[in-house]
């Protein structure tokens, strides 16, 4: 019964947070209209899963704000990347200090005094790598992906250095496989999967199923 309550609570809160996010996306000057109820359904599922894992003891309560916040960001950015092929600064830039805040909260309660420092360094390292990749191939990797790397690198490195490597390589692998699949089925280049989606998806999975160390 208690698990069902957590599922329902996570779904309800996630749906409400997604509705608020969609309204924020519509604000000018470059508002984006995302049709309902895709954001609500996606975030309801992510938040319900995170709360359920926390209720069963598989996810530390002090770490719970991280996958919740990242899930909200992931759903909104995925919607903008799919509908408008861009990752707006209005989301990617505030996500960096927000990631540091939630990691600071987790680190203050976790038995890992190096978490915050590792997270900040991980964000810098991943951003630097993405910036180099953008300079080498600007058509394949946009500046929005570079800015997103700062927040995803922060939360991934907060888990562990192997988690940062797993999340980064996983995103590259998923993007590459999607591109190969698109070529095999005869789709044009515009049908390829935006890299922001694998970045966010892999980061959320690693933070929702963390192996700290």
SSE map:
Layout: H1 2-25, H2 38-55, H3 65-84, H4 89-109, H5 115-136, H6 143-159, H7 161-184, H8 196-208
Give a verbal description of the structure.
The chain crosses the membrane at residues 61-79, 91-109, 115-133, 140-159, 165-185, 192-212. It contains eight helices and no strands. The chain is mainly α and 213 residues long. The chain has a domain at 63-208. The chain is globular, with a radius of gyration of 17 Å. The two termini are 33 Å apart.
Total strands: the figure is 0
Give the averaged pLDDT, no decimals: 89
* Tally of helical segments: 8
Given helix and strand content, the structural type is mainly alpha
Strand composition percent? under 5%
- Cα end-to-end separation: 33 Å
Shape: globular
Pfam families: Peptidase_A24
Keywords: Membrane, Transmembrane, Transmembrane helix
InterPro entries: Prepilin_IV_endopep_pep
Domain Prepilin type IV endopeptidase peptidase: 69-174
List keywords for this structure.
mainly alpha; 213 residues; globular; 8 helices
Short structural description:
The chain has about 210 residues and is an all-alpha fold.
